[in-house]
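Changelog-adjacent note: as of this version, every example in the card shows the full chain rather than a window. The one below runs 289 residues end to end.
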Amino acid sequence: MSVKLEMLRTFATVAAQGTLSGAAMLLGRTAPAISMTLAQFEQEVGAPLFETDRKSRLTPLGQLVLEEAHRAIEAFDKSVDAIRRHTLSTAGIVRIAAVPSATVALLPDVIDAFRKARPNVRIEISDVDSAAVRARLHRDEADIGIVSARPGDPLEGERIFSDDLGIVCAAGGAIHRAHLDAAGPSDWGLLRLEPLILNPLCELVEDETVDALGVASVLEARNTTAILSFVRRGFGASILPFDAVRNQPDGVEFFVPSGSLSQRELRKIKQEPDTLRGPALEFWRLLNR
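Full-length structure tokens:
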């Protein structure tokens, strides 16, 4: 059997569009050319793949072949993308997947230092949560990952630095006023005064109040800029590290509850110990404080 990738891609496109003309438009070919490719494919397979000439219903064999075609096309496209990325990497590209707070607080200084040494290297930043950072590394969609972790958790990658987690709230709001008026030490219980805007960093705080408010929360955000925007609009309060809010505009207040200290670590991770080369390795070495 001499099946070509072009046959698989043509067949999958016709099956998705339901017509030869629709597939021809997507593939940039004529309908007769599409029809000829399909006929050659069915000849190679040895049986019809469509119930009728209208191409709107697959035979049982056609359904099976379609599933295999999707797998083969996906594998081929991934291989081509990997080759293309390797070519770009050789020419100069660094792909970073980082938690939002690292994107705001850590990466600007690192990028500034890196660009002074490597001004022509392309830098791609993905702003995602820790779970998505790990997934992007696993799928080879990033060279370097930066994740948040609780100090004392099993080590992952290399520690960059740690900082205190605190409450971020609207200036003049209920939490801010209570914090200013408090005679004694403040604690995470102040979060009861406003709705909690949930984000993944809340999971790093070991406190029953935070756990309960997290379950009841009706608003969740993963991007630091979005969280701070929601806080300024009075939608509620949230939990962030100081580095993520220190350069933010007016309208937002931040404080660390003195009654119960919680911290997070930023760690840099990569796929394997010796996978980084060239510009990516240089960027990795700059990720320190």
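Structural remarks: Residues 228 and 249 are 10 Å apart (CA to CA).
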